[in-house]
Amino acid sequence: MSERRRRVTINDVAALAGVSKGAVSRSFNGASRLPESTVKRIHDAAEQLGWRPNAAARAIQGAPARTIGFVVRRDPALLGSDPFFPLFLAGVERVLSAHAYGITIRFVTSEEEETRCYRDWVAESRVDGVIVSDLRDGDPRFALLDELDLPGVIVGDPGRAVSQPAVYHTTDASIRELVDGWVQRGHTRIAHVTGDPNLRHTLRRRAIWADALATHGLGSDLFETGWFTEDGAKVATRALLAAAEPPTAIFYANDIMAAAGMGVLADAGRTVGGDIAVAGFDGIPLAQYLSPPLATIVCDFDELGDVVGGELMTLLSTDGSVPPVTTLAGRFLPRASYELRAE
Amino acid sequence: MSERRRRVTINDVAALAGVSKGAVSRSFNGASRLPESTVKRIHDAAEQLGWRPNAAARAIQGAPARTIGFVVRRDPALLGSDPFFPLFLAGVERVLSAHAYGITIRFVTSEEEETRCYRDWVAESRVDGVIVSDLRDGDPRFALLDELDLPGVIVGDPGRAVSQPAVYHTTDASIRELVDGWVQRGHTRIAHVTGDPNLRHTLRRRAIWADALATHGLGSDLFETGWFTEDGAKVATRALLAAAEPPTAIFYANDIMAAAGMGVLADAGRTVGGDIAVAGFDGIPLAQYLSPPLATIVCDFDELGDVVGGELMTLLSTDGSVPPVTTLAGRFLPRASYELRAE
Predict the structure, then answer these.
(1) Alpha-carbon distances, residue B178 vs B171, B175, B277 (angstroms)
(2) Boundaries of each HTH lacI-type domain copy (chains A, B) (predicted)?
(3) pLDDT at B77 over 80
(4) Which residues of A touch B31 (CB under 8 A)?
C-alpha cells in the first residue's frame, strides 16, 4: 500500500481561522460561547481543509477504529429472501470477533450516497477496511478505495486487475454441468431467467449459460430478465411461456425466482419435474421443501464470509500477504425439479 | 437518564504513572521511544483506572459516535433462514441513514461475550445507543444498560417494567384466530412445535396456543421443542407422529420449521392440506410456494425496524419522548395447508 498522506489536523483549522485549538474544538462540540460569526469562520475553515472533529480525535490517538465497513447498495426488499447477506455476515463476523473487530453496515440507495459513505468513513477514521460486494459493471469503488488509500476485500470477480484482493465462488463448471445434463437428456430449448443486469454476477451466469449452449450448437435467445425478485421472475416466466416455442427447461439465476416461477408454471398447467424442468441457484434451505424439490447450485456463503474476514484481518496486520484472487467452488445439486418424468 | 459519571481522563493516567500526557498518548499509538518499563507502568495505570485510548479521543472531542450497536447472540446457522434479521436491519438502517447514523453489528456466542461487548462499546465510546433483541428469560441486559447508562430500544416484550422502551409484534390474537379456526373445523388434537425455549417469544407463542386450547376445554400436552431449526422440526414432527393419538393439525413456531415438518409428514405418507393441517409463523415469501401453500402469521419486520430506528433517534435527540411500549399487529394468513380436504 502507498504511504498515507499527512492528515489535516485541528492546528491547521485553528491557524486558517485565526483562533485557538480549543476554540475549534468547542465550536464543534456545542460547548462554544464564541460569536456566531467566529463559529462560522471556523466551520468554513474546517470545510475548506476537509477536516472533521472525529478525524482529529482519532489522529490525536492514532488508534485504529477496529471496525470493518460494509456499504450495501441494494433494495431492502431484496434482503429478506436473499440467503447471501445474513450467512455471509455471520461468517465475516466470526473471524472479526476473534480479532476484537466489529462490522459497521450502511445501507444506501444510490452511487452518490455510496461514495459519500466511503469518504465520510475515511475522513472520520471510522473504519480500518471495507468489504465491497454486489459488483457492477464499470464499478467506481476499486478506484475510490485506491484514492482513499482504504484497504478492502472484494466479494466477486472484478473482471480486471485491481489493487484489492477478490474472493468469490466459481460456479462456471456447475452451470455447465447443469446445462450439459439437460442437453444430454434431449432438451434443446433451455431458457434462462437472469438477475439484475447491472450486477456482474448476473452477466456472468448468463454468459456461461449461453456458452454452454453454444458448445452444443444451441442458441441462447431464450432468456428474460427476472431482477432476482419474485415479481420479476413471474413476469419473465409468463413471457417465456408465451414464446412461439416455449422452453422445456428453465434455469433461474436464484432460488427465490425459481420458486416464484414454479408457481407460475403450475398456474399455467405445467408440471415441474413432469413436462418442464427447472433449476435455481444459491442453495437456500427451503429449496429442498418445494414441490418437487428444487435442483440448484449451492454456494456456501458462510464459508465465503469466513475467507473474506480472514483476508481483511491479514490486510490490516503488519505482516502476511493475501493472494489477488481466492475462489471457492459452487456445487450443482440435482433434485427432482431437474428431471422430466414420463407420466 | 441519570447523570453520567465523570470519565477517567488521560490526565488521571498520566498522574498515576508519573509521566506526561504526551507520554501516555505515545505509549498507546506505537510512536513511543520510552523505556519498556515506563510503557508497562503507563499501561498498568491505564488498566487500573479502566482508561482506554479511544475513550480519551472521544472525550477530547465530545463528539457522538453516530453509531447504533446491535449485539446478536445467535447461532450463525439460524441466520440464513430467518427472515427477521435482514428485513429488520434494512428497516432500522433506512431511518438511521437519514440521520447520518450507522449500525455496528457484533455476533457473539455467550452471555459473557455479550456483556463484554456492551462494556467495551461504552468504555470506548463506540456507540450512542443499542438495539436489544432475542430476549431471554431473566435477561441481564436491561440492568446492564441501566448500569452503563446506555440508551437502548428493546425488540420484544420484556415482560416486566424496564427503563428501556420496547417495540414488538402482538400476535396473540392471530394465534388465537388460528387455533380457534381449527377447533371450529373439528380438530381436537392440535399440536405445537416450539422454538428455542430460552427465548421469551418462544414461551409466549406456546402459552397463547395452550390458552386458546384451554378456552375450548382442550389440553395442551401435544407439543415438542423444535428450536426454530429444520432439524429440530424434523425430530419434533416424528415424535408427534409417533404419539398414541397423533395430532390432526400442527402449528409450527416459524415457517422454516413448518416447511421441514411438511417434508417429514409427506415422507410418512400424510397429505398436508389433505389429512393433516399445518400452519407456520413469520410470513416468509417462500411460504406461498410450498405445496400446499403454507398458512402463517405474517409479521412485518421491515416496519418493526423502521419503528425501532425512529425510537432510537428520538432517544438520542435532546427532545421528544418515546412510549414505554409500542406494538405492531401480526396477521393470520390462512392458506391451503390450514384446511383438510375431503379426498
Answers:
(1) 11, 5, 11
(2) 8-62
(3) no
(4) 62
